[in-house]
Amino acid sequence: MSNFNKKIAFVGGGNMAEAVLAGLLNKKILLPEEILVAEIKPERRRYLEETYSVETTETNSDAPKRAKTVFLAVKPQILQDVKSELKNILSADHVVISILAGQSRSRLGEALGHMETIVRVMPNLPAQVGCGVSAITFPEQMNESDRNWVRKILKAVGEVVEVEEPLQDAVTAVSGSGPGYLFYLVDHWIAAAKEQGLPDDVARLLVVETLAGAAQLLRERPDSPSELVYKVATPGGTTEAGLSALRDHDVPAVVHEMVRRATQRSKELNKG
Ligand SMILES: NC(=O)c1ccc[n+]([C@@H]2O[C@H](COP(=O)([O-])OP(=O)(O)OC[C@H]3O[C@@H](n4cnc5c(N)ncnc54)[C@H](OP(=O)(O)O)[C@@H]3O)[C@@H](O)[C@H]2O)c1
Fold first, then answer.
1. Tell me, what's the pLDDT at 262?
2. Which residue's C-alpha comes closest to atom 21 of ligand 1?
3. Atom of ligand 1 lying closest to residue 123 CA
4. Residues 6+ away with beta carbon under 8 Å from 24
């Protein structure tokens, strides 16, 4: 593989770009000299150069000139600004990975050309600690070797799944926005723990480790979530008493509504 072929150029050097490039370096998938970051803010460029020894540029058009893989990681509203810098340089030989929320492959194809090279991905925030999950939509025409390369890049920061593009709105609502729902719940769970007399640091540790441990159990055990509920909730016991509050307030209906509203919002954003 030539250096051009292996190199990745990020357009936008924000939080998600940093998470992915750090994962690629930590897992030794790429060397620092195989990563270029096009980023508008000088202080951010300096930070990325000093922290990761990667090369940076302020010129977005350098990205497709210098690398076969172009990783689009700007905010969706910035696409208008960057498209003219990329459009005439991108070719059918590039692989463009877009993590822009609410931007369909066809809209990206109109903005950048070469829709057959555009891979749409919805990652999530835990990518920053290597525990993300990304949903990938490949263009039908993309060859297996390029697909494997994209999978390898995203596996550097967590798990990957592949979905048809119409399901990306649901993915956005479930795993893209998911950390936000959990942070909200955890915030209130900690407050409730403190209300029962637990000190702040103890309350936080108990809640966060319970969440992490329960997630690990769900990962490792074959039991369904409802089987696990049945196993932990002894009739007349404390878990059952707590669960009765969730049932009384129809939390299942709230959870369905939460995902439904977020999916709907993603669809609206996609339409522009
Ligand atoms: N964060 C998440 O959990 C998450 C999850 C899924 C998908 N995404 C998607 O990932 C993308 C990036 O999100 P993020 O959280 O990493 O955002 P972010 O931290 O704001 O990163 C975007 C970076 O691009 C820079 N930038 C702005 N205009 C530019 C330009 N013309 N040329 C080059 N760079 C430019 C920004 O600088 P300024 O700050 O000056 O604008 C910023 O440093 C978004 O499209 C988002 O929808 C994020």
1. 96
2. 14
3. 6
4. 8, 30, 35, 153, 156
Q: How far apart are CA 113 and CA 88, in angstroms?
A: 8
pTM exceeding 0.90: yes
**CATH number reported for the structural domain that contains residue 127 in this entry:** 3.40.50.720
Q: Which of 163, 195, 229 is the last residue of a domain?
A: 163
Tell me, yes or no, whether 205 and 240 share the same domain.
Answer: yes
Q: Indicate the residue among 137, 163, 189 that finishes a domain.
A: 163
DSSP helix/strand/coil, 168: helix
Domain that holds residue 155: 3-163
Give me the pLDDT at residue 76, please.
Answer: 87
Please check whether residue 121 lies inside any domain of the structure: yes
Mean pLDDT for each consecutive 10-residue tract of the chain (272 residues)? Answer: 80 97 97 97 98 98 96 92 91 95 92 94 97 97 96 98 97 97 98 98 98 96 95 94 97 98 92 74
User: Residue 48 and residue 25: Cα distance in Å, rounded?
Assistant: 13
Cβ atoms of 162 and 136 within 8 Å: the answer is yes
Report the pocket of ligand 1 as residue ranges, CB < 6 Å.
Answer: 11-17, 38-41, 44, 60, 73-76, 78, 81-82, 99-101, 122-125, 176
Q: Does residue 168 fall inside a structural domain?
A: no
- Report the CATH number that the domain containing residue 260 is assigned in CATH: 1.10.3730.10
